[in-house]
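Suppose a colleague, Dr. K., hands you the sequence of a protein chain of 199 amino acids and asks what its three-dimensional shape might be. Before reaching for any lab equipment, you can write down a predicted structure in token form. Begin with the sequence itself:
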Amino acid sequence: MTCKTIFGAIAACLTFTAAATANVEYDCGEYNNAIYSITYFDEEDVAEIRAVDLAGQMASALMRPAISGSGSRYVSDTGNSEFIEHQGNAYLFVQGVQLTCTVFAVTAPGDNGGGFAAVPLNIPAYSYGGNLRSGPGMQFGTLGSLPEGTTITIIEETGIYMGDHQWFGVRLFNGQTAYHWGGIICASGAPLNGVFTGC
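The predicted structure, expressed as tokens, is then:
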């Protein structure tokens, strides 16, 4: 993938490392065959938009503060993407299409939710059944459990391993996001380190 655009929505790629008071990760859902997310870096007062297409290729761009009647507003340099947060509600506008964003994680500076560097993905998979967690590890709270055969989408590679398998951020059919252990995930359509390989 070249550092240009995914579906014309993001005009520049970047590598951005923040030392922020709090980094807030937003999951903004799907538009035009790509999954969108936003990271807000509090101390720098900037946001980063990321889009991952069905092939797993990612593009990202910096969004800068813009004038807003109320709440917070961030706009990409091209003006194709706009992120608005007001009174706990967050929205991403991509080429004029509104996506509703939900908080996925809040991390401290240099923390990344327990020292992991998340890699966005968009890979169809299914679960062999097991617990959903609020973070990538057994020390995080249980958000529920999945029956065997539940269809999921792997949206994040954490790099945190338990045994030979890593923890992944996943999205369920109802839009809920959580973490799931790779030892009980089958992603037969894509080569991915840290998932169960016998499926």
